[in-house]
């Protein structure tokens, strides 16, 4: 039965993926009406997150951001669908790096980079576009991901995301992949703004006015392996068009104090959110795990330098 469902879904996914963007955008408008007005998908979560992060904004302003977010969210859904068949030419046109020389500067010096991207605008297409920063000898793009429970869908999604040479691997295999590619220049990519499952193995800081636990792994690996951490500003310039600007977080990561890289990453994200708040993943329950009272006593010692 699982395999039959998989075959049906695969057929529908690929049938939808070959549609032109103008038709996918029309589908996005239908999805917006259904998700926002009919099903009220996570509207309470979105509104709560926006209010707590922008207490200075009026109800009307919060409502406007909320609507713009859902329109963008539906665009992301159809863009993710398009990912299954989108061409290299189309990715280069629609997901453009404005300053690839920032990465190339460190590539030429022999460094590996830790690419720290938030769930902001279209982060999924980075799986493809990072492969074209320095052609024809682009560093390997290593991307950790969460394994899907359905083995058939897992195979389908992994195959799709690997089409332009990105190397996908489960988070649990990070150490092994770093060793495997230690002699090959590479980018190691993190979605570093997510809420960590282990509150004791987190970095705690104030973010958007909230006490927030932050994923610390990107900083830990950057310092241990001397990877240059890079923040990606992803800006939406039109429907399904994005520009990416790279910003160096630390040129000498091993010389930074504990928490500097993580704090800097989150401050850059905070700046992007104040400039264009509608494009973050507001449906995520970002603050559902509070900082435990005994954090300082029980935090996993491996999180510290």
UniProtKB/TrEMBL annotation:
Keywords: Acyltransferase, Cell inner membrane, Cell membrane, Membrane, Transferase, Transmembrane, Transmembrane helix. InterPro entries: LipA_acyltrans. Coiled coil: none annotated. This is Acetyltransferase. The keyword Metal-binding does not apply. It comes from the Bacteria. It is found in: Cell inner membrane. The chain crosses the membrane at residues 12-39. Its main location: membrane. It comes from Marivirga lumbricoides.
């Amino acid at each position: 039965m699982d395999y039959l469902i998989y075959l049906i879904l695969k057929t529908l996914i690929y049938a939808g993926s070959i549609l032109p963007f103008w038709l996918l955008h029309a589908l996005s408008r239908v999805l917006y009406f259904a998700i926002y007005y009919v099903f009220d998908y996570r509207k309470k979560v979105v509104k709560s997150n926006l209010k707590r992060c922008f207490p200075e904004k009026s109800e009307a302003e919060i409502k406007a951001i909320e609507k713009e977010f859902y329109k963008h969210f539906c665009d992301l859904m159809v863009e993710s669908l398009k990912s299954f068949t989108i061409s290299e030419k189309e990715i280069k046109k629609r997901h453009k790096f404005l300053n690839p020389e920032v990465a190339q500067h460190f590539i030429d010096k022999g460094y590996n980079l830790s690419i720290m991207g938030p769930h902001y605008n279209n982060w999924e297409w980075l799986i493809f576009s990072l492969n074209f920063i320095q052609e024809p000898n682009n560093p390997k793009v290593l991307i950790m991901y969460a394994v899907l429970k359905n083995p058939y869908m897992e195979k389908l999604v992994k195959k799709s995301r690997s089409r332009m040479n990105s190397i996908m691997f489960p988070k649990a295999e990070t150490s092994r992949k770093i060793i495997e590619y230690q002699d090959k220049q590479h980018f190691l990519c993190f979605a570093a703004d997510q809420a960590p499952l282990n509150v004791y193995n987190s970095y705690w800081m104030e973010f958007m006015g909230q006490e927030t636990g932050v994923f610390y792994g990107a900083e830990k690996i950057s310092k241990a392996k001397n990877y240059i951490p890079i923040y990606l500003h992803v800006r939406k310039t039109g429907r399904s068009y994005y520009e990416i600007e790279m910003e160096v977080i630390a040129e000498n990561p091993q010389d930074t104090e504990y928490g500097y890289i993580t704090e800097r990453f989150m401050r850059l994200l905070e700046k992007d959110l104040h400039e264009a708040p509608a494009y973050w993943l507001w449906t995520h329950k970002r603050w559902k795990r509070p900082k435990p009272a005994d954090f300082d006593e029980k935090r996993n010692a491996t999180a510290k330098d």
